[in-house]
Amino acid sequence: MTIVALTVPDDLCTALHVPAERLASEIAFAAAVRLYEEGRVSLAKAAEIASMERFSFAARLAEAGIPTAAFDPADVDAAKTAAGQC
Questions:
Q1: 34: closest CA among 49, 53, 56?
Q2: pLDDT at position 26
Q3: Is the CA virtual torsion 4, 23, 47, 43 positive or negative?
Q4: Phi then psi dihedrals of residue 9, to 5 deg
Q5: Are 33 and 61 a contacting pair, CB within 8 Å?
Q6: Of 13, 29, 46, 78, which has the fewest CB atoms closer than 10 Å, so is most exposed?
Q7: HSE on the CB side for 65, CA within 13 Å?
């Protein structure tokens, strides 16, 4: 793995309401979520970035109201047609 060092304000822990020992994991999680939302990484890769198990990461996304599945409307219409629905 590659290690990335960041310089952050001294009061960031206070601003985020997290203890100093959790700051790195909070930043990694935020980065993973952003990259996932932008479609730049898969759910599995985002979980890896956040150092989380994939299903735990997906559950945390769901708690935040972030969808973990996206469907193309054309795929949904095709599935309905195949199933004989309107």
A1: 49
A2: 95
A3: negative
A4: -60, 150
A5: yes
A6: 78
A7: 0
Ordered DSSP codes for the chain: ---------TTHHHHHT--GGGHHHHHHHHHHHHHHHTTSS-HHHHHHHTT--HHHHHHHHHHTT--S----HHHHHHHHHHTT--
How many other CB atoms are there within 10 angstroms of residue 68's CB atom? 14
Provide the 10 A C-beta neighbour count for residue 18.
15
Q: Whole-model pTM?
A: 0.77
Structure tokens at 71: 């469907």
The residue ranges of every structural domain in the chain are: 12-82
Whose tokens are 């990694």? That residue is 28
- For residues 32 and 50, the answer to whether their CB atoms sit within 8 Å is yes
CA–CA dist 47, 57 (Å, integer): 6
Residue type, 79: A
